Amino acid sequence: MTDEETKSVEAELVTEYTQNDFLATEKPYEEIYAYKDDPFMHNLKIEQMSRQASAVGVKAFKGLYKNYVKMREMQRGCGIIINNPTAFTGPYMQLEAGKYCVDDGGVYTIDSFGSYHVICHHPIIPFEILQNIDTGEEKLNIAYRARNEWQEKIVSKEILYNSRNIPQLVKCGVDVSSETAKELVSYFQEIESLNRNVLPLKKSVGRLGYIGNEGFSPYVEGLTFDGEQNYSHIFSAIRAKGDYKKWRDTANKCRSESLTARIFLAAAFASVLVQPLGGLPFFVHLWGVDSGTGKTVALMLAASVWGNPEMGEYIQTFNSTVVGYEKTAAFLNNLPFLIDELQLSKDSHGKSRFDVYQLAQGAGRTRGTKTGGIERTPTWRNTILTTGESPIVSGSAGAGAVNRVIDIECGANNAVIKNGMQVSSVIKQNYGFAGRDFVHKIMLDGIMEQVREVYDEYFHKLCQSDTTEKQAMAAAMILTADFFADAAIFRSGLITTTEEMSAFLQTKKSVSAGERGYQYVCDWVAANSKRFVSGEENNGEIYGVMQDNYAYIIRSKFDEITEKQGFSQRALLSWLKTNGKILTRGRNNTRGKRINGVNVECVVLRLPESEPEYYTPEELSSADMTGFEPL
Q1: Integer Rg of the chain from CA
Q2: What share of the chain in percent tops pLDDT 70?
Q3: Cβ atoms within 10 Å, residue 123
Q4: What is the per-residue burial (b if ≥16 Cβ within 10 Å, else e) of 570-605?
Q5: What's the rounded Cα separation, in Å, for the pair 28 and 19?
Q6: Which of 443, 430, 499, 495 is nearest to 467 (CA)?
Q7: 3-state SS, residue 187
Q8: What is the pLDDT of residue 9?
Q9: How far apart are CA 447 and CA 272, in angstroms?
Q10: CA–CA distance, 382 with 335 (Å, rounded to integer)
Q11: Residues facing 366 on adjacent strands
Q12: Do 417 and 294 touch, CB atoms closer than 8 A?
């Protein structure tokens, strides 16, 4: 070939391209790709174009062309044409970048004069869309390369598409500032819009528990967690690890050695029955002043049913706020809420700031949003397992609070877990199998009907005893869970009976706030009997007078002592009147009485009549009768 013919071929092959052509169009790459079926001409064209690209400042031409070839090969299979593909090295699919250039150097634009305008100094793209099953909210899973390592993060569109919010991503290592925020927002909007039919759409969930027809989170394949980052460690803690048999042998040993451990473990399983059976959340509280009774290890054993029992992983503490409790309960949803060390909630006066009602209703507080609407009210249906050195409800608590708690006292002579160190060591290495197994089995066709039948039978039997319906409901769920957990998992034949369970339930009398208030006022009158005499016999403050079997309590003093103890004086007076514990005048709950010459309104309290002392035959036979002669 002559020199003139060579020049002719070169002229035919090489068109003069600008830097903008290389970085904002496909023309140079199309020209080379046209020769892909001729290896010699194809390689020759690559070399020629590479030199020209280098001359105009494009150093990575061969890499760009390689990605172009990959893109064209992908287009053959899916029929999608990408005019301006992303061109960075990494494991993520190519996307249409529109007016933007996205390569290993970052995200930028090139104007008509060939000037670069950098938006982000590293590559960043969305690679999948997540749609929340509960709310329908869409989030983007974005990938970005910071410090030469690809990282992924799920981000709400409220952040990505708002120039005031998107600078928050700087905390995660994304190159964004208040100056580039608007441009980065526009970039994400355009790249998602251009690739909406290409980006994979996945279902996501921001909580645990039942998720409609999808199954039970986190035991659903292909389901992505898109919840708050604060709860990601709890979500990741709900998993299986170690040897199922080792865990089961240890749990069975604990169940056989302690009725309390068996009930507490059953309460952990019962959590997933609360919603299907139409129940409300309830507490099972282990308490005792003695150390070394195994309360915390029992809580860890309950946690190991579902996941990692290490403190700070699944188990939480009482060192939290009301909002924190609500959000955590809503996140767990149907899994048990495990809280250790009630004493952490006490103030400087030793009074607990925790209120059972905060969680027992199964719904959080309705809160407004900055835009004028209201947030989605958090809800949950589960069991709440707690430990502490004292009861979780005080003597002045309302009947509703007492009703929702199964209180179990643990002493040095009846430890919940006999060998805490050994049990703790085993369950920290082996956990998470039983909960997953239990859920899968009760969700099988027809099983939930059997669960409901067993529950109804337990509930009916417990209601015949001297306890309330709410206590019976909670106890029946625990007994039902114990029955099916033993059948499906433990296979020991050791099942808790209603008689064993009844020993831990409140009686109707002990639940009544009115009954407890009446007893408190009677005790107060007895302790201050010297204040119930008038005239010269009493030189101090007078609270009232005693007459026959009645205490005439000055109304202002009655209000003071009941309110101070936490009782509602109006509610207590109403109960006292209804139950014939006070004398009244007409519609009033008080009567007038002249004390030291002054007529005052008094609450006229009927005092309990003294009961005759008696002894059982067993007590008489063992009593010391020295000095007594038979009649």
Answers
A1: 37
A2: 88
A3: 22
A4: eebbebbeeeebbbeeeeebbbebebeeeebbbbbb
A5: 10
A6: 499
A7: helix
A8: 47
A9: 14
A10: 6
A11: none
A12: yes
Higher pLDDT, 89 or 382: 382
> pLDDT category, 224, cuts 50, 70, 90?
confident
Residue 172 has pLDDT above 60, yes or no: yes
Please report how many Cα atoms fall inside a 13 Å half-sphere around the Cα of residue 545, on the Cβ side.
Answer: 16
- 607 and 550 Cβ atoms separated by less than 8 Å: yes
Give the bridge partners for 144, in sequence order.
Answer: 124, 151
Q: Which two tokens stand for residue 50?
A: 């590479």
Which residue type is seen at 420? G
> If you write DSSP's letter for every residue of 36-91 in order, what string do you get?
TT-HHHHHHHHHHHHHHHHHTT-TTHHHHHHHHHHHHHHHHHH----SSB-B--SS
Residue 132 and residue 204 in contact, taking contact as beta carbons nearer than 8 Å: yes
Q: What CA–CA distance (Å, rounded) separates 344 from 337?
A: 17
Residue 592 has phi, psi (to 5 degrees) of -80, 145
Cα–Cα distance measured from residue 372 to residue 369, given in angstroms and rounded to the nearest whole number: 5
> Can you tell me the distance from the alpha carbon of 356 to that of 378, in angstroms, rounded to the nearest whole number?
17
3-state secondary structure of 354: coil
Spatial distance between the Cα atoms of 363 and 354, rounded to a whole number of angstroms = 16
Which structure tokens are listed for 209?
């528990």
Contact assessment for residue 263 and residue 410, using Cβ atoms and an 8 Å cutoff: no
Q: Which long-range contacts (CB under 8 A, 24 or more apart) does 593-596 make?
A: 593/544, 593/545, 593/552, 595/534, 595/542, 595/544, 595/545, 595/552, 595/554, 596/534, 596/535, 596/542
At residue 236, the 3 state secondary structure works out as: helix
- Cα–Cα distance, 417 to 254 (Å, whole number): 6
Tokens 């109006």 found at: 570
DSSP assigned state of 200 = P
* Residue 623, pLDDT score: 46
pLDDT of residue 368: 61
State the Cα–Cα distance between residues 490 and 438, nearest whole angstrom. Answer: 11
d(CA 461, CA 240): 37
- Distance (Å, rounded) from C-alpha 187 to C-alpha 184? 5
- Residue 492 CA: distances (Å) to CA of 156, 254, 431, 481, 483: 48, 12, 19, 14, 11
pLDDT tens per residue, range 297-318:
999 999 999 999 998 899 998 8
3-state secondary structure of 285: strand
**Is residue 102 pLDDT above 60, yes or no?**
yes
Mean pLDDT check: name the lowest of 105-114, 235-244, 540-549. 105-114
Burial class of residue 153, CB neighbours in 10 A (0-12, 13-18, 19+):
middle
pTM greater than the 0.70 cutoff: yes
CB-CB contact of 183 with 163 (8 Å): no
- Which tens digits make up the pLDDT trace of 377-417? 889 999 999 998 888 876 555 656 788 899 998 887 888 99
